From TrEMBL:
This is Putative acetyltransferase. Residues 9-174 form the N-acetyltransferase domain. It comes from the Bacteria. The keyword Metal-binding does not apply. CDD domains: NAT_SF (cd04301). Keywords: Transferase. It comes from Kordia algicida OT-1.
Length: 174
């Protein structure tokens, strides 16, 4: 079995055909606070991004994978970011793009696959995640996979006229 294949979905690299999917996600204002986006992205910029998505994680310091259901539906994205091979750590985040795909176990399976990949193939010692304190679904998901809350960044993001706290989670190799 491939490392990035589960029972409900598989994870794959970005492809040029993902242009419309990425364009839709990056320009959805309702999720801008997750990625700290403040302005829309053009198709041209996203096309350029996809053309450079082949870079190795050791070069780019990040890896974005597409979640695809066994029914061949594009579900969402899962990212490894701020890859630091010297200190053996990497950040992780995910997004289930449409509500109809949420609460079906896709996020949990994708997170498990990427955690295993990072520990086994990238040889990291720890993964970390930054989660808004009001994102109850993500908090529940990460805690269910033994990510430990290690701190709160108070008033960390300013969204819709108010400050929000952000929680820092870590998971160490077992």
């Amino acid at each position: 079995m491939l490392t990035l294949t589960g029972e409900k979905l598989y994870l794959r690299a970005l492809e040029p055909e993902d242009l419309d999917f990425i364009y839709e996600i990056e320009n959805d204002e309702s999720i801008w606070e997750i990625s700290a986006t403040q302005t829309p992205y053009s198709r041209f910029l996203i096309k350029q991004y996809l053309e450079n998505a082949h870079q190795d994680i050791y070069e780019a310091k990040q890896l974005r994978l597409v979640m695809v259901s066994n029914k061949k539906e594009t579900i969402g994205l899962i990212d490894l970011f701020e890859f630091d091979p010297k200190n053996k750590r990497v950040g992780i985040g995910l997004l289930i793009a449409k509500r109809k795909h949420r609460h079906k176990g896709y996020g949990k399976e994708a997170l498990e696959l990427v955690c295993n990949y990072a520990f086994k193939h990238l040889n990291v010692h720890q993964l970390f995640a930054n989660i808004a304190s009001d994102n109850e679904a993500s908090i529940k998901l990460f805690e269910s996979l033994n990510f430990e809350k290690i701190g709160v960044k108070r008033d960390w993001t300013f969204v819709n006229g108010e400050f929000k706290n952000e929680i820092l989670y870590q998971k160490f190799v077992q």
